[in-house]
């Protein structure tokens, strides 16, 4: 399970890097035409947006991990409940045999 999460993290990181590089290439010509003040403001905004996106990706991964843990716990509880129910049915059947 953890290797899947690691692969997901790597994939997310690679996707962010690819998007980052793509944006840099596409925007480089437009940025050259801007004044230096506008350039620095735009770069700051881009960095803030990238950091926000990175935080969102990390939060999604965290929620996925929590979900996986809770799903595993639910499966354990379901097995336990099923075992209790089957033992209750068997106990009930034994009581009926003794009465009959």
UniProtKB/TrEMBL annotation:
Main location: cytoplasm
GO CC list: cytosol; Golgi membrane; trans-Golgi network
Record key words, sorted: Coiled coil, Cytoplasm, Golgi apparatus, Membrane
Database matches in InterPro entries: SCOC (IPR019357)
Membrane topology: Peripheral membrane protein
Sequence ranges of Low complexity compositional bias: 1-23
Annotated coiled-coil segments of the chain: 39-66
Subcellular localization: Cytoplasm, Cytosol; Golgi apparatus membrane; Golgi apparatus, trans-Golgi network
UniProt keyword Acetylation, yes or no: no
Region called Disordered, residue ranges: 1-37
Family: Belongs to the SCOC family.
Functional description taken from the UniProt entry: Positive regulator of amino acid starvation-induced autophagy.
This protein's name: 13377_t:CDS:1
Species per Swiss-Prot/TrEMBL record: Funneliformis caledonium
């Amino acid at each position: 399970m953890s290797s899947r999460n690691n692969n997901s993290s790597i994939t997310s990181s690679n996707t962010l890097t690819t998007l980052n590089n793509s944006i840099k290439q596409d925007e480089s010509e437009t940025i050259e035409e801007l004044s230096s003040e506008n350039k620095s403001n735009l770069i700051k905004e881009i960095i803030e947006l990238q950091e926000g996106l990175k935080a969102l990706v990390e939060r999604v991964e965290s929620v996925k991990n929590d979900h996986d843990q809770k799903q595993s716990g639910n499966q354990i509880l379901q097995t336990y409940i099923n075992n209790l129910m089957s033992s209750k049915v068997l106990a009930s059947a034994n009581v009926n045999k003794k009465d009959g």
